[in-house]
What we know:
About 35% of the residues lie in helices and about 20% in strands. With about 270 residues, it is of the alpha/beta class.
Amino acid sequence: xxxxxxxxxENSRIVVQMGSQPALSVDGVVKSFGAVHAVDEATxxxxxxxxxxxxxxxxxxxxxxxxxxxxxxxxxxxxxxxxADDVSPWPSDRRARAGLATVFQTATPVGGxxxxxxxxxxxxxxxxxxxxxxxxxTPGQRREEKEIREAADEALELVGLGPLAHRxxxxxxxxxxxxxxxxRVLAQRPRVLLLDEPVAGLRAAEKARMREVFLDxxxxxxxxxxxxxxxxxxGAVADRVLVLDRGKLIADGPPSVIRHDARVIAAYLGxxxx
Length: 274
Ligand SMILES: Nc1ncnc2c1ncn2[C@@H]1O[C@H](COP(=O)(O)OP(=O)(O)O)[C@@H](O)[C@H]1O
Ligand SMILES: [Mg+2]
């Protein structure tokens, strides 16, 4: 097994406490677009600290399901629970503040800010004072600024961008921008991460780096849900695979079981191996 490249230091803030109930529960969720049943009665629980991959053919409803969980789309019926909270009526920003964070594939860096500044943007999710300007800062504001800086530093270290903290973010290559998008979300202090095709378009070395980051986040107790097409990648990172086909969950299990599931092979995998 690949060893995570970073061990969470004793005083790390980027560690998630374990709880006994599921991190996330999707209960009978339905989402239709006109006559298209994009998500059709999806029900599953996600364990704290697990990495779940959502797979299925194009148009199966993977992105729709993820967007319903994040709150970017309002589902038609069913419930979505974050821990014990039914977040179904909550808008996406409230879900994010409660720890349900989305990593965008195309996070555009804020121009004029360096890599560190871009990671600090994520801290808006929990700051009380916001970024203070001017000289009339209270001790509370100064303390919070220090906390913001430390959280962003640690998030950058975690994805391996620490040495580039003072580079202009817009000069980063594609693969590193993806890592920066993750760092920004980690600075939000999330518990559950949602990622839609996070390694699409990456080169082999960048994918390998991403795999290490996901395994490291798992070791730290984060819960992750990834939509992924690359079956080799899925086999290397997933504890569990959920298979969607035409909006319905048709299989649920570890990669070693999914790769032999006749319905999955027929619907999706063909001769590919997980
Ligand atoms: N905003 C939308 N309006 C209408 N139909 C949509 C919309 N988003 C997705 N769909 C349809 O819902 C189905 C599932 O799409 P999607 O969730 O994007 O699939 P996947 O991510 O698995 O490829 C498809 O038939 C797609 O055409
Ligand atoms: Mg999609």
